[in-house]
Amino acid sequence: MKTAFITGATSGIGKATAILLGKSGYRIIACGRRQDRLDELKGELAAFTEVYTLSFDVREKDAVFKAIDSLPNDWRNIDLLVNNAGNAHGLASIQNGSIDDWDAMIDINVKGLLYVSKAIIPNMIERNTGHIINIGSIAGREVYPNGNVYCASKYAVDAINNGMRIDLNEYNIRVSQIAPGLVETEFSLIRFKGDADKSAGVYEGYDALKPEDLADLILFMATRPAHVNLADVLILPTAQANATTVKKH
Ligand code: NDP
Ligand code: 8X3
Asked: Which of 17, 106, 172, 208 is the most buried (most CB within 10 A)?
């Protein structure tokens, strides 16, 4: 049975992915800071698969390596890494943006992804196999008003994804990126610092993607024959044409 390591499995895309992969024959290493949610997820999947939970903050370099080093021997061979943990913090012009928000986005979306990858890649290299799916964003393809640093963090994911694919090419490791448009998750609640009305407004008047749509895509990509790599997929709601064009009912 294959083992999938999923960051940000406590909510949204990561949680839906853990559930779908867990019901589709994968063992799951589920990560996030909220242990209560990881425990709930483990309970929800108990009838389908084994789940190992790891609670750590991807910003904390030492905690990332300690958590991954703590995996028992029979959980160390990771077949699929889904680098999903991340968020936008704030939506503000460059002149009004908060430095704490900038730090959070660079530290989580970019450095956190690098730390987790750095801890897991050596085992993939040793085994000459593996698949890494990096969750980028349409924000990594187009900069939109007030998106500045979030967009920069996702442009960085795009560059890291392409660099990983080149560097890991000789080790038979697939590297893929998914760049979603608007997905209805807790993403906007975090971006708008708990403002539920503002967050709900982002998804009003059209059908946004659901986290399950992303889980479907991740399962599809992960289960292609070994010689096939869906290297880079932009996935949008039908109502969304680009980062700033959304047709409302
Ligand atoms: P959610 O807010 O629903 O989920 C974010 C997940 O990331 C949570 O599980 C959270 O876990 C985890 N996370 C956040 N910060 C940290 C941290 N410091 N350490 C460890 N884990 C962390 O959002 P989504 O599911 O929408 O987001 C998942 C990914 O998809 C992100 O990379 C996001 O940028 C990307 N994306 C989202 C889009 C959208 O419209 N929703 C569109 C394009 C891309 P916990 O808080 O428990 O630590
Ligand atoms: C999340 C989608 O458009 O809010 O990456 O940046 S968007």
From this structure: 17
